[in-house]
């Protein structure tokens, strides 16, 4: 289980023997940020030019999408990335998706999901949500994707830079507890909201 992985202070690990697959498993943080902010901007432009949604409705949907992402972030982190590994297949999947990050948390190339996978997931979400939400998707999904991009920024900062001397320091503390003290607590990275809701928050002295 991830909770038993000993984090290394430096280094990296090869996941795939094929050089192309190995390269695709890595990314500079700027690439997904450019991709998702651009993707979101494109959807918002489409929203303005091809739908009848008002500014108020669009703003509310954008905010709902952003908050929805923080919930999805928590659920996926807790129940997918930290799934129980009672088979070799599940153990391999978990390690490839997330365990390697827990073992080498300072590896800058693996602080974000590879862009090709993220773009594919985003496009699938667009198609599914378009069928469910109709034109609302062009305001909701940008908020969701900006939420993801914001998560990437926070995740990168807490792993690369020392904690700031302001209110955001709590995000550094929470993620340090998750990585270095108990991987079964504090699953929220961009926000501790859902850890409080689901009771998985943990104080630094507990």
Q: Care to describe what's here?
A:
- With 206 residues, the chain is mostly helical.
- It has one domain (2-158).
- Helix content is 63%, strand content 0%.
- The chain has helices spanning 19-24, 30-50, 55-79, 88-103, 115-133, 137-160, 169-180, 193-198.
- Helix 2 (30-50) runs antiparallel to helix 6.
- The chain is globular, with a radius of gyration of 18 Å.
- The chain starts with 18 loop residues before the first helix and ends in an 8-residue tail after the last helix.
- The mean pLDDT is 92.
Helix vs. strand class: mainly alpha
* Poorly predicted regions: none
How many structurally independent domains? Answer: 1
Q: What about the largest sheet?
A: none
Shape: globular
Determine the mean pLDDT: 92
Kindly state the number of beta strands. Answer: 0
> Which range best describes the helical content: under 10%, 10-25%, 25-40%, 40-55%, 55-70% or over 70%?
55-70%
Strand content: under 5%
> How far is it from the N-terminal to the C-terminal residue, by CA?
21 Å
Number of helices: 8
N to C succession of SSEs: HHHHHHHH
The radius of gyration over CA amounts to 18 Å
In a few lines, what is going on in this structure?
The chain is mainly alpha-helical and 206 residues long. The chain is 63% helix and 0% strand.
Describe the structure using short key phrases.
206 residues, mainly alpha, 0% strand
Topology:
Elements: H1 19-24, H2 30-50, H3 55-79, H4 88-103, H5 115-133, H6 137-160, H7 169-180, H8 193-198
